[in-house]
Amino acid sequence: MRGLTIVNILSILAFVSGIPQDTASPSLVDPSIETPATEVPPSDSSLSKRASNSDFPSYIIGVVCETNKVRKQNNLPPLQIYAELNTLAQKHTQYMVDIKTLTHEDAEGTLGTRLSRDKVKWSFCAENVASGFLEPAKVVEAWMNSPGHRANILNTRVKAIGIGNVGNFWTQNFSDFASGFNFDGYEPKC
């Protein structure tokens, strides 16, 4: 983790009681934001539109559509689904289920460490996690009602999103990429 800056925005555990919830004990953990040790300027990537909604599980489409809906309401561009972020989010979500707790670090490290290990040239990344929600709309609503998580969703730097879900545990990963790094992304039809 040397060289990474991790900023935990603020604790919202006390705030969760006022959020509409799917189960009796939903919870969120402070969102995570990282930048590489050497800041790389954001880039405009060429995105592929070869995929379709049916190429992704419905929970991914659901969370991304809800996320893009609130981004549109805030005059922000939609995020593209990036398969590598989905894979990392799904593995991280399974890890949280296995240890029965919310966290931004797993055996492989933080999101930034995981992206770097997989040779993804990122310039910015952030992560939201939650548990206790069964529906995509409810977990996005909970994140939007938390200032730190909302900041990640409405961040102007991010271009890509990945979603993980196991039961009522969720991970939402965001990234922008280093100049010259091309990624295939897909904007779902919502």
TrEMBL record:
Sequence ranges assigned to domain SCP in this UniProt record: 67-168
Ranges where the record places region Disordered: 27-51
This protein's UniProt keywords: Signal
A Pfam family reported for this protein in Swiss-Prot or TrEMBL: CAP
Signal peptide limits: 1-18
CDD domains: CAP_bacterial
Protein name: SCP domain-containing protein
